[in-house]
């Protein structure tokens, strides 16, 4: 129990500091994005990642196509030399760069949206832990505010997913004739779909169970 | 109340746990896995590659001062973007993790032991998660959202995650002591274990805290029952 209380206190302080830093970071990033869009800075480009497939039929029927690039590696293992092996690193995604004004606007907009949602999530998470930290003293572990914060986190996650889907599909429809090492490939956007949906579902379930705790506490307060 | 409802109600109350499916699956999975690993050790089946992954750094000082090093490998890429001119470029893919292979008998035994332990622990995590989901599903009807069994399941998941972490760390560190003179594209590099450790630690901490708050719900529920 003491471990959990210490963890809550540590995470509460850590998240408060992280929130301040991330808000400062977001403000700084906003200025950088403006410079980026108007081309005042070098290395401004928009990157979108896509899975690669050998042909369009593979999109539905197969694993993403992997293209191998080689590197050499050698090592001694328990005194036995494994010298100069050629290893393959498999390439199953490809990043497309767009250094035009459109690319800079889209890329920076995407970054701003994701960053804004990230800061909002961190704010809610920080609120939850501050509230839990104060619960160590006042023993009020279940509050409606925390329930709302957990639900908001789920919706912000959904927002991040939507941003990824929208921006990836814009480029998906703009692109054609993608050739890697002489092989024409079909592409499909890399979207963290299943992991995000899974996280949203778990967060909503936690929120629901937490809400039952809030109801229990309210009932108990009424009984008293 | 029919038999099925009664069974689910008892299940939700934690009086009957679905131990049977768990042990049945274990009875099927464990012998199958043992036979496969036995065949693997004696090279009857195609060798299951025994691999350990590591981050690497260019020199020892980088371990404390810098991010892991990256080795670039190149490939050619061309594409049309919105009917603009075709763009032909040499792209670089950055390699920040390398994998060591050990196909000796020792390597196969160590690799198989690691896989076996991790698979069994993942299986236990899956079983505990199933218990929690089943129990929450039952709670939709009986409205008992906070049960001690679920709390125990949360805590068990934390223990299994820590066990996975220790297993991975032990095997990773064991190889770290056995390997030396590692060169990638001609550059000598130093290895750092720890590919998945941060994720596992973060998951364990979060689940531990959820379990703690959940336990407060159980106490609240018990107090309410006493009041009634």
Task: Write up what this structure looks like.
- The complex is a heterodimer of chains A (224) and B (228).
- Helix content of chain A is 63%, strand content 22%.
- Chain A has a four-stranded antiparallel beta sheet.
- Chain A has five helices and six strands, in the order αβαβββααββα.
- In chain A, a hairpin with a 2-residue loop joins β5 and β6 (183-189).
- Chain B is α+β, with helices and mostly antiparallel strands.
- Helix content of chain B is 60%, strand content 19%.
- Chain B is built from six helices and six strands, in the order ααβαβββααββα.
- Chain B has helices at 3-12, 19-41, 62-65, 105-142, 148-178, 197-227; strands at residues 51-57, 71-81, 87-95, 97-101, 179-184, 187-192.
- In chain B, β2 (71-81) and β3 (87-95) form a beta hairpin.
- The longest helix of chain B has 38 residues, at 105-142.
- Classes of the chains: A alpha+beta (224), B alpha+beta (228).
- Chains A and B meet through α1, β2, β3, β4 and β5 of A and β2, β3, β4, α4 and β5 of B.
Short note summarizing the structure:
The complex is a heterodimer of chains A (about 220) and B (about 230). Chain A has helices spanning about 1-35, 55-60, 100-140, 145-175, 195-224, and strands at about 45-55, 65-75, 80-90, 95-100, 175-180, 185-190.
Q: What keyword list fits this structure?
A:
heterodimer; A: 224 residues; four-stranded antiparallel beta sheet; 5 helices; B: 228 residues; alpha+beta; two-stranded antiparallel ribbon; 6 helices
Strand percentage of chain A lies at: 15-25%
Mean pLDDT of chain A: 77
Strand content of chain B: 15-25%
Low-confidence stretches of chain A: 55-63
The chain pair forming the largest interface, with residue counts per chain, is: A-B, 53 and 54 residues
Question: If strands are numbered along the chain, what order do they take across the biggest sheet of chain A?
Answer: 4-1-6-5
Helix content of chain B: 55-70%
Rg for CA atoms of chain B: 25 Å
Residue share in helix of chain A: 55-70%
Indicate the structural class of chain A: alpha+beta
The number of helical elements of chain A comes to 5
Radius of gyration of chain A: 24 Å
Would you list the SSEs of chain A in sequence order as H and E? HEHEEEHHEEH
